[in-house]
Design a protein that fits this description.
Layout: E1 7-8, E2 15-20, H1 25-39, E3 43-50, H2 63-81, E4 85-91, H3 100-113, E5 117-121, H4 131-148, E6 165-169, E7 176-179, H5 184-191, H6 210-232, E8 239-246
Parallel strand pairs: 1-7, 2-3, 2-5, 3-4, 5-6
Antiparallel strand pairs: 6-8, 7-8
Helix pairs in contact: 1-2, 1-5, 2-5, 3-4
The chain binds zinc ion.
Amino acid sequence: MAEVEISKNLPPPLSALAVGAHPDDIEFNVGGTFAKWSEDKTKLAHVICTDGSKGTWEKNANIAELISLRSEEAKRAARVLGTSEVMFLGETDGELEETKDGVRLIVKWIREFKPQIVLTHDPWKRYRLHPDHRKAGFLALNAVVGARDPLFFPELEMEPFRPEKIMLFEADEVDHVEEIGNWLDTKVKSLLEHQSQYKSTMDISDPKDQEQVLRFKNWVASLAQNDAQKYLGNKSSFVESFKIMDL
Ligand SMILES: [Zn+2]
């Protein structure tokens, strides 16, 4: 396979909208990039497709409480990154489908918010297990086409809007990285707002235990460092990685 040329560090856009499957996916995948851009006054929006209702290991969890807690956590985490808007599609966790209603709603948000860049899961990532990540990617990409082309969704009675780029995270073929070394702490801080996920995804049983919190921070840093090594050949940098599509 030919070597892919890796570009790095886009000029911060005027606006960007990320579509994630679950309440913490955006922070995990683009938290550093968004923290960096928001310092440059990029207007940011998060679209969260599912309600996060499978995000616990407690068999007897109160699901309504979990859903409301996760949406509050997502809003707090977004605020840490400097995001002004958080939209919820409200589909059931684990059961996301590419419905026309779902696409229409995201089309509406794209036409309203007018993001220069749309970021989402790479739906073509090979050997991906979680169906919600794949379907969130397809929903977002279908919505970009729907928002861009004037004859799509006339019932919305809105002007079409064409984003300039799509950035796919969890990309199958990475061709771009954003350096996030100075924004790693902000990324971790936003992730730590997802307290309901401490046990299941962050391996933190007691948030007052600084050692456990530090271990999580180091883990997030090591992922960003591994990608820098892999894509830039530079172990002293920290990056988030993407596949870019120009529209
Ligand atoms: Zn997820």
